[in-house]
Amino acid sequence: MTAAAGTIDQAAGELEDTAEGKNRLGRALDVAGICAGVVLGVILFDIFSGGKLTQWARNRRGPGPGGDAKPGGCEGCGDDN
């Protein structure tokens, strides 16, 4: 094998390594983009539905500290009966 052939083989190996690194980065960015799209979709749905998701989450959590009981919260929670 000549020196030129060795250099070409080495350069080809380096290109494969960088292509594999770019492929991994591309997949990671695809996953991040999908997650961001889902989050954005949920936010937009909540905005256009008049806050139904936010209201559902607050009702599910129950009464806040020092606040009145909210609809759908825990009825009878804290009663000493």
Note down, in words, how this protein is organized.
The chain has 81 residues and is mostly helical. It has one domain. The chain contains 2 helices and no strands. The longest helix is centred in the N-terminal third of the chain and has 46 residues, at 3-48. The termini are far apart. The model has no long low-confidence stretch (mean pLDDT 77).
Overall helicity:
55-70%
Share of β-strand residues = under 5%
Query: Low-confidence stretches at least 5 residues in length (pLDDT < 50)?
Result: none
Q: Would you tell me the structural class of the helices and strands?
A: mainly alpha
- End-to-end span in angstroms? 91 Å
Order of helices and strands: HH
Indicate the mean pLDDT. Answer: 77
Major sheet characteristics: none
Q: What is the number of domains?
A: 1
Number of helices: 2
Number of strands: 0
Shape estimate: rod-shaped
Over all CA atoms, what is the radius of gyration?
A: 28 Å
